[in-house]
């Protein structure tokens, strides 16, 4: 399947992909921030990029993290590529921003103690 050239079809394909990954845990909606929306498609040939933002609420389990009920707003970029008839989606997501919003960063902290004997 070739990469859609129509901006609305391109946006819809990316939204379907992002919703499939995040929609159960973070019901919400995708938007393409300005001025990027006016620039779609961004790329030529068999690949294009679509910057996006997801706005939702953490209502479902995500990577083993229980729902917090917190609103989330995080960004990403999806690169769509025609791979000989198959449409491939490659997502780059600001994971740290997402995990901070659902308070999942603190679990990775470690305390190191250093004792100096005199």
Task: Describe the overall structure.
By secondary structure, the chain is an alpha+beta fold. The chain has a single domain, classed as Nuclear Transport Factor 2, Chain: A (Roll). Helix content is 23%, strand content 31%. It is built from three helices and four strands. A four-stranded antiparallel sheet has the order 1-2-3-4. Strand 3 (71-83) and strand 4 (86-93) form a beta hairpin. The termini are far apart. The model has no long low-confidence stretch (mean pLDDT 88).
**What's the β-strand tally?**
4
Cα radius of gyration in angstroms = 18 Å
Count of separate structural domains:
1
Low-confidence runs of at least 5 consecutive residues: none
Sheet-strand content, in percent, reads 25-35%
- Architecture (CATH level 2) name: Roll
How many DSSP helices?
3
Query: Class in CATH?
Result: Alpha Beta
Structural class, judged by helices and strands?
alpha+beta
Largest sheet properties: 4 strands, antiparallel
Distance from N terminus to C terminus (CA atoms, Å) equals 71 Å
Adjacency order of strands in the biggest sheet: 1-2-3-4
Mean pLDDT: 88
Concise synopsis of the structure shown:
By secondary structure, the chain is of the alpha+beta class.
